[in-house]
Design goal:
Helix content: 55-70%
Distance between the termini: 6 Å
Radius of gyration: 23 Å
Order of helices and strands: EHHHHEHHEHHHHHHHHHHHHHHHE
Largest sheet: 2 strands, antiparallel
Structural class: mainly alpha
Number of helices: 21
Shape: globular
């Protein structure tokens, strides 16, 4: 049973004497955000290749924005200036790349010589052209930003208790992916699969087309679990239940067969230990520290016991012995060559697959196509040049600045942990090309905003006991 000092969800007054309407409005915004997150989970896991499914998420995001126009105005008027500037710049970048330019300008841009020759061959060399070399993909990139924008403007100033509810929604999303993936594995991924490329796979993938994003989603749910429960106030049932969920999610990560996701399991472990460690000022601090170590050991040991002797687990772990990813360094090397061609402004958002092949070394050519740089930082640099680098740097500084409150544990710590996971996997993959994970990234950044308000809500609206 949950006992609250004040009922912020229903709008009644708390010790902070919030107006009755505030809780009701924030509850409605949280509901919209959770609904959009659910839509993104179901339809947004296919990556850029799943155009129609992504369109469903984008239309849902547009609808949510339309129904919450005041939240948009409130964010840009009241949120901290640096995040507002970053959001505005991120939204404007693809739009500016779509603006038609006179021939004298676009033909003089770095790397456009092949495009100029192509247009000369068909007799349209004098036409106005946009900055980007892939108009359709750049436009798609802008529309892909609408759902995360909606989640950000709806969630950034929620009270602490509702921020915990948002983290709980992420945990539930991870459980859904795990349970669905288990059913898929039971049929050798022949039934209940969302994407054709998943059919016949030996990996747990749930609502995702890529095992790396599926594994990362489960790892994100693990980190969210740390901040979703006020552990210092939780009763034994909640603690045991949370440990059971953690074991389930760890098993799921291993079954995805994603080496990067398995490696990133160190992040939720460190987040959990830190969250317990900062409570050491309590009267029974030694018990808290011992409990933290035992909890992590129980999750790892319990998962190992349940997975021992499992053939699928053996296949996942033996992937660490393989060298099949020797192709990635080759892709990175060719991407750097392409970056030099289009430096310092880039080729346009979404243009990687079209421009990379020009600079792909002959000895690296194979029957397949790279499709992605398998390093989001390199890919952004190729597509958006120095502006993309500055935006990445700005977002990192914002997360570091806002994430300073994470040292206190709780919701901010979980948010920083998730963003760290996304950044680390971006070194070898492209997680933010998934509409689902892009929405989760926006949610985690939103949870870092308004931390002072969150601490005030902690005084008046958190459960006394769970």
């Amino acid at each position: 049973m949950i006992k609250y000092k004040g009922d912020a969800l229903s709008g009644s007054r708390t010790k902070r004497k919030r107006p009755p309407s505030v809780g009701f409005i924030s509850q409605g915004r949280a509901g919209y955000a959770v609904l959009l997150l659910l839509v993104a989970l179901v339809f947004g896991g296919g990556g850029s290749a799943a155009g129609l499914a992504n369109l469903v998420v984008q239309l849902a995001g547009l609808a949510v924005l339309a129904f919450n126009r005041q939240a948009i105005f409130a964010f840009f008027a009241q949120a901290p200036r640096m995040p507002v500037i970053l959001v505005a710049a991120t939204l404007l970048l693809p739009l500016l790349q779509l603006v038609p330019l006179p021939p004298a300008i676009w033909q003089s841009l770095p790397g456009r010589d092949l495009a100029v020759q192509s247009y000369d061959l068909i007799g349209v060399q004098g036409a106005w052209r946009p900055f980007t070399l892939s108009v359709n993909r750049t436009a798609m990139a802008f529309f892909a930003l609408l759902p995360p924008l909606a989640i950000l403007v709806l969630s950034w100033d929620l009270p602490e208790r509702q921020k915990r509810l948002m983290l709980q929604a992420v945990v539930v999303a991870g459980i859904i992916v795990m349970l669905l993936g288990a059913q898929q594995l039971a049929t050798n991924n022949r039934l209940l699969v969302f994407y054709d490329e998943v059919a016949g796979s030996r990996n747990l993938q749930g609502t995702f087309a890529n095992r790396n994003t599926a594994g990362l989603m489960l790892g994100i749910a693990l980190v969210a679990l740390v901040g979703a429960v006020p552990w210092h106030r939780a009763g034994p049932v909640w603690k045991l239940g949370s440990v059971a969920v953690a074991i389930l999610l760890v098993i799921g990560v291993v079954l995805t067969g994603s080496r990067s996701s398995m490696t990133l399991l160190t992040v939720p472990a460190l987040v959990a230990i830190w969250n317990w460690w900062i409570r050491r000022g309590a009267a029974h601090s030694r018990k808290m520290v011992v409990g933290a170590v035992l909890a992590v050991a129980l999750v790892i040991g319990g998962g190992s016991f349940l997975l021992s002797g499992n053939q699928r687990v053996h296949q996942s772990l033996t992937r660490f012995d393989s060298v099949e990813d020797e192709e990635r360094p080759k892709i990175w090397a060719d991407t750097i060559v392409a970056i030099k061609r289009y430096s310092p402004l880039g080729a346009g958002i979404g243009s990687f697959d079209e421009v990379f092949q020009v600079d792909e070394a002959l000895e690296n050519v194979s029957l397949g196509r790279a499709g992605r740089a398998h390093n989001d930082f390199l890919e952004v640099t190729l597509e958006s040049g120095i502006i993309g680098i500055l935006l990445i740097g700005g977002w990192m500084v914002a997360v570091a600045t806002l994430g300073f409150s994470a040292r206190h544990g709780g919701v901010p710590l979980a948010a920083v942990g998730v963003l760290v996971q996304l950044a680390l996997q971006s070194l070898t993959d492209y997680p933010l090309r998934s509409q689902t994970l892009l929405c989760i990234a926006a949610l985690m950044f939103a949870l870092l905003l308004g931390t002072r308000e969150g601490r005030s809500a902690h005084e008046g609206g958190l459960p006394d006991r769970i």
